[in-house]
């Protein structure tokens, strides 16, 4: 009997944990944002900068993946690889920047993906324009005299 009560408590905790995730997934689906895309449907990719990658899909849909953190070298190298054991690329997957040394590629930094958001041509235009601006190599620092 005690084992049955424990099972009921565990099951209810699992359901409680699942409900918010399901609500978030439904909110994202309403906006067209998805956690995974089918690898078979990827036509090509386009790196915009160290934060944004466009995934051009067969059928015309373009997904923007805004990485949760800056991925050093991605903007410069414009190439990356990924490994997955399923036929989908998801927001929990990792990409690895590929560095071209002229005689082949070597793996560089690895970075996590974000969710995949459908993107319009106008949004892509704005993203490309913003990506043309140079990112500062070293952020400006305050002059010690200015601190006082």
Short recap of the structure:
This protein has 148 residues and is an alpha+beta fold.
Can you give a write-up of this model?
The chain is α+β, with helices and mostly antiparallel strands and 148 residues long. It has four helices and nine strands. The chain has helices at 2-31, 74-77, 121-132, 144-147; strands at 36-38, 42-47, 52-57, 62-66, 80-82, 88-90, 94-100, 105-112, 116-118. Strand 2 and strand 3 form a beta hairpin. The protein is globular and about 45 Å long.
Q: Secondary structure elements and their pairing?
A:
Elements: H1 2-31, E1 36-38, E2 42-47, E3 52-57, E4 62-66, H2 74-77, E5 80-82, E6 88-90, E7 94-100, E8 105-112, E9 116-118, H3 121-132, H4 144-147
Antiparallel strand pairs: 1-6, 2-3, 3-4, 4-9, 5-7, 7-8
Characteristic key phrases:
148 residues, alpha+beta, 4-stranded antiparallel β-sheet, 4 helices, globular
**Overall residue-averaged pLDDT value:** 80
The side-by-side strand order for the widest beta sheet comes to: 2-3-4-9
Please report the distance between the alpha carbons of the first and last residues: 70 Å
Low-confidence stretches: 1-27
Give the overall form: globular
β-strand amount: 25-35%
Which structural class matches the secondary elements?
A: alpha+beta
Overall strand count: 9
What string gives the helices and strands in order? HEEEEHEEEEEHH
Helix content: 25-40%
Rg calc: 21 Å
Major sheet size, sense and barrel closure: 4 strands, antiparallel
Number of helices: 4
């Amino acid at each position: 009997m005690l084992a049955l009560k424990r099972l009921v408590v565990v099951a209810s905790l699992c359901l409680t944990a699942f409900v918010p995730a399901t609500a978030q997934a439904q909110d994202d689906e309403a906006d067209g944002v998805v956690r995974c895309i089918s690898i078979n449907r990827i036509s090509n990719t386009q790196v915009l900068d160290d934060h944004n990658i466009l995934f051009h899909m067969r059928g015309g849909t373009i997904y923007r993946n805004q990485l949760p953190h800056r991925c050093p070298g991605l903007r410069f190298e414009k190439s990356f690889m990924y490994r997955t054991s399923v036929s989908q690329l998801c927001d929990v997957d990792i990409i690895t920047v590929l560095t071209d040394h002229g005689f082949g590629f070597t793996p560089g930094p690895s970075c996590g993906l974000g969710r995949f958001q459908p993107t319009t041509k106008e949004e892509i235009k704005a993203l490309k324009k913003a990506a043309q601006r140079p990112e500062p190599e070293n952020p400006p620092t305050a002059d010690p005299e200015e601190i006082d």
